[in-house]
Amino acid sequence: MKENYSERLLQIDTMKTQQAQKLKGIRWQVMFSFLFSWLCHSVSAQLHYSISEESRKGSTVGNIAKDLGLNIKELSFRKFRIDSRVSEKYFTVNLGNGNLDVKDRIDRETLCGATSTCFLIFDAVIENPLNVFHVKVEIQDINDNPPRFFHETIELEIIESTLPGARFVLQNAQDPDVGINSLQNYKLSNNQHFILGEKTSNDGSTFPELVLEKPLDRETQSVHELILTASDGGSPILTGTALIRILVTDVNDNFPIFTQEVYKVSINENTPINSTVLHVDAKDKDEGINAQITYSLSTIPEKAFSIHPTNGEIKIEGNLDFEVTGSYEMSVQAKDGAGLITHAKVIIQILDENDNAPEISITSISSSVPEDSIPGTVIALIKVHDQDSGENGKVDCQIIDKVPFKLISSSGSYYKIVTTSAMDREKISYYNITVLATDKGSPPLSSRKNIMLDVSDVNDNPPVFEKSTYVAYIAENNLPGSSIYSIHAVDLDIGENAKVIYSIFSTNIENVPVSSFLSMNPVTGDFYAQRSFDYEQQKELHIQIMAKDSGSPPLSTNATLKICIVDTNDNVPKILYPSAESDGSSLFEMVSFSAKQGSVVTKVIAVDADSGHNAWLSYHFMQASETSHFSISRHTGEIRTSHVFQDKDASKHRVVVMVKDNGDPSLSATVTINLVVSDNFQQILPELSDQFSSADSQSNVHIYLVIALALISFLFILTVMLVIISKCKESRLPTSSGSLSTNVYSQVDPRFISKYNNGTLPLPYSYNVCVALDSSESDFTFLKPTENVPIASLIDADDSGIGSEGAKETSSSNLMKVKVIAHQQANSELGQVVSQRNKSLYL
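Predicted structure:
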C-alpha cells in the first residue's frame, strides 16, 4: 500500500507539471461584458478569469490593466489595488506591467470542498477618478488527490465453517476531486476464496462487498490478506488501496510438536547467572486455549538451569565450572491446554574459559644477597600453576623489571631466579623483583608476584674526607684543652663497615711528639689543644690524619690538617736603644749648644716580637720638661732639635719616650732620656745632680697622677676579670668542689672558651705596674717575662746614664760611658737598618 501511495504522489507531480506547461500556451481566458459605455468614468465592469489550482507562485492570470483599458503608467499614481480579505492572499497586481499574478498556492479542495465549481471574487479599485471593477477568477480542478480509505487495514474474522456465498460489506473510499477526477471503481486482488461485489444504498451511494466463493481451511491458511484498490477517472489515473486481513478460526485437533527432537548448545563456563542458554519451541496448530503450551524440565541436574513455563527460555540457575562438570543433559516437556504432552532432549556442553590466572608460589627464597655475589647466584625458587586446560593452561614466566636478575626454567613448572651481574648496595640497597606469569588463553590472564630482596653490605668503600687538606686558624694563647677544629669523613657503607675511627697519622712535629700539641677524639673527629700556642715560637702545624672504618678488612683514607697560628698582640715593644740601667737611673745624652735646628740628637730603637699590625711601632713624647725644644719622628724614633738653642734656654731636659704598637688594644713601653745642652760636658757635670734633684721635686705632682692612674687601671682590670669569672661559673656545670679546677684539661665547656677566643688576649693576662718613687725618676711600665733579645751587637751594654753622687766621683769613667754619640755614629749603619725595619712594619 505504501508503494501504491508513492506512485500516486508521483502521478500527481507529473500531472501538475503537464498542467503548468498547458497554462504556458493558454495563460488565461477572459470573459467580460461592458455594462456601460467606456466613456463614462463611473462605469462598473466585471472581468472573468480561469486558472487551474496548484499553479506556481508568480504565474500570470491575465493583464488586468489591459483588459480594463487602463494606462499602465498611471497604475501607481492612481493607486490601483485589490480589495478582498480572501483573494488578496492568493493574487497580486504588478503595477509595473499590469499583470494579475498568483501570490500563493491555491488548493481548490481547501477553498471549495466537494462543490463542482469554485470561484475567487475580488474588487479592483482605482482612484483619480474612482472606479471599482469586479473580478471573478474560476479555480479549475486538477486530479491532484487520489482516492483514500478511512482505514488502511480492514480486519475480518471468519470461521472456517462459513458457507460460500456469504457477503461482508467493506468501507467506501473518498476522493475530494470532482467530475471525472473523482472516484470511479474498485478492484480486488487475485485470490482463491473471495470475489468483489457491490451494494447500493437507498441514497444512491455504492459500497464494495467481499463475497466468499470457496470454503476456508484454517489448518491450511489461517490468515488471508487481500488488496482492495479504488481508482478515479483523471489523467493520469490515481488510485488508493486498503489491506483486507481475514483471520480464520479453527477447532483444537493438533498435538504440540517441538521444532527439534534434540537441542544441543555450547556455552562458556563463565556465562553469568540468569543468562539465556536457549529457547525450546513447540508448535500447536490449534487455537485459543488448546494452543497454549506450558514448558517444564523433567530432570534438573544439580539445579543448574531453569525454564520459563510459557516461552520455553532456559536460563542458568547456578554457577558453571568446566573444571567440575563438562556437560549437562535434561528432558523438556511441552503440554497444551487440552493436556496433550510432547518431550524433547536438551544437551548443554560447557566450554572451558580462560578464567583462572596462573598462580605463583615461592618455594625457596633468600632474605638478602651480598653485593659482591657472583653472577649466577640463586636467590629464589618459584613454582607456576594454571588450573585451566589446553592452551589456557600453558604459562610463560618472566621478570618485568630492569634488575640484575633473570629466570631460568628448572623442571616442569619450576623456575630459578639467579643474578646476572654484580650489585652495588651504595647505589641500590634493595630490589623489588616482579615476576609476571601469563597464560596463552584468549584473552590472556596474568598474575604478578613481588619479591623484596635486600642487598647486604660488604666493606668496599673507604671513608672519604670532605677535603684532602683542612686549614684551621687558631689564635695564639688559646686555652689548653679547648676544641679547636673538627673533621668529618663519610663512608657509603652501613653498620660496622661505616663506623669511622679517626686518628693522627703523624708522630712528631719538629722532633716533638704530636700528642704534646694536639689530641683527637677518635669517634667525633674533634681536635683539642694540649697547650697554649705561641705564634712567636711556632706559626704552623702540619698533621696527617687517618680515617679508618671498622669493616673486615678495614679501609682507610688520609688527609692533611694545616693549623695556622694567628698572631695576637701579646708582646710589649722592647726598646733596644737607649737601654735603661738596672738600677733605674735615667740615661744622659749630650746635645751640642751650637746644634742647628733639625739636628739628630739621638734615636730610639725598639722591636716587637709580634707580627703584622701588632708589630707596627710608633714613637711619642710622653713626658718632657720642655718638649718644644725637641721633636721625635713618629715612624723612625729619631729625636731632633726643634730650634736653635739660646743662652736663656735650660741646659738640662728630661723626655719620656713611649713606644706603642698598633695592636688592639695596643701595648707600649717607655724610656726616660736626660738631654744635656752644652758644648763642654766638664762644666755642666757638677750641676747635674742638684738641678735634676730640684726638677724631681717639681715632678712629685706627676708621680701622684701616675699612682692615681695606676690604681684606676687596676680597679678596672679587676672588675673585668670578676665579670668574666662570674660568666664562666654560670655557663659551667656544677662540680662537687664548687670551684674551678686548676688542671690544664679543665672542665670548661669548649664552646664557652671559643666564645671569648676573639684573636686578642683570649686568656686573662696579668699586668704588673711598677712605680719607682726615687729621687731621680718616676714612671710605669708593663712588665713581661724577659726575652733573649740580642742587643750586644746593637748598643754597648755598658752605657749608662749619670745619676747620683757616685757619678761625681767617677766622672772620668762616666765621660767614657757617655760616648753615646760616638757609638751612634759608629753604629749608624745598624741604626738605619733597624729604622728601616720599623718603617716597613708601620707602613
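Summary: Residues 1-6, 17-44, 691-698, 733-843 have pLDDT under 50 and may be disordered.
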